[in-house]
């Protein structure tokens, strides 16, 4: 990962909740500068840090925010939506049968042909070869076992898993608010 001293392309702002924690780690909660400026003028956020980049209008000048915090706390304890992305994130983007991270699909542990439903508790991430090999059988019949039993994750668990996948670059003004093991590059 690279830590940038200049604004990243497009000058996005890191968005923090009112408790100064990022709204999301993966994907990282970033807003385009235009949305950030609008939120500042609507009084929805406080500017925590700025870039050196300045925007101008005929009567106004402002440094672009690099970090903002919401004025109202957004609860993070709601159940996560069942989406392909959240499923892959729950399973750390790895096949639950062989551990590979390529060509990922999702697999019904109890096959749909046998009444298995599309729920957190019946779906695991599987690479295409493992999914194809398992076919319409149960894991026991196919001689495979998921590394982890499928279950509904909490938002906190998804956030924690998201910390394992830092973006390829961060702005130095964001570092005090993010919790990754980061090697600084010149």
- The low-pLDDT segments are 181-186
> How many runs of DSSP E, i.e. beta strands?
8
Q: Distance between the terminal alpha carbons, to the nearest Å?
A: 11 Å
From the alpha carbons, calculate the radius of gyration and give it in angstroms.
21 Å
Main beta-sheet annotation: 4 strands, mixed
Element-by-element helix/strand order: EEEHEEHEEHHHE
Shape: elongated
Strand order of the biggest β-sheet: 3-2-5-4
Count of helices?
5
In which range does the helix fraction lie?
10-25%
Q: Approximately what portion of the residues adopt beta-strand conformation?
A: 15-25%
Residue-averaged pLDDT, rounded? 91
Q: Quickly give the structural class.
A: alpha/beta
Give a structural overview.
The chain is of the alpha/beta class and 186 residues long. Helices cover 19% and strands 24% of the residues. The protein has five helices and eight strands, in the order βββαββαββαααβ. It has helices at residues 33-41, 84-90, 128-134, 139-142, 155-162, and strands at 2-4, 13-16, 30-31, 45-56, 61-70, 104-108, 123-127, 169-171. The strands form three sheets. Strands 3-2-5-4 form a four-stranded mixed beta sheet.
Give a quick set of tags describing it.
two-stranded parallel sheet, four-stranded mixed sheet, about 25% strand, alpha/beta, disordered C terminus
Give the helix/strand layout:
Elements: E1 2-4, E2 13-16, E3 30-31, H1 33-41, E4 45-56, E5 61-70, H2 84-90, E6 104-108, E7 123-127, H3 128-134, H4 139-142, H5 155-162, E8 169-171
Parallel strand pairs: 1-8, 2-5
Antiparallel strand pairs: 2-3, 4-5, 6-7
């Amino acid at each position: 990962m690279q830590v940038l001293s200049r604004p990243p392309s497009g000058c996005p702002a890191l968005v923090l909740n009112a408790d100064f924690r990022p709204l999301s780690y993966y994907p990282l909660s970033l807003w385009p500068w235009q949305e950030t400026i609008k939120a500042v003028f609507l009084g929805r956020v406080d500017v925590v840090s700025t870039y050196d980049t300045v925007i101008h209008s005929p009567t106004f000048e402002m440094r672009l925010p690099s970090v903002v915090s919401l004025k109202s706390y957004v609860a993070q304890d709601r159940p996560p939506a069942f989406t392909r992305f959240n499923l892959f994130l729950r399973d750390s983007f790895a096949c639950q049968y062989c551990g590979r991270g390529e060509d990922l699909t999702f697999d019904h542990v109890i096959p749909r042909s046998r009444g298995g439903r599309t729920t957190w508790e019946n779906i695991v991430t599987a690479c295409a070869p493992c999914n194809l090999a398992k076919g319409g059988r149960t894991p026991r019949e196919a001689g495979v076992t998921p590394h982890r039993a499928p279950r509904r994750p909490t938002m906190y668990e998804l956030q924690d898993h998201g910390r394992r996948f830092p973006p390829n670059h961060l702005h130095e003004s964001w570092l005090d608010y993010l919790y990754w093991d980061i090697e600084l590059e010149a």
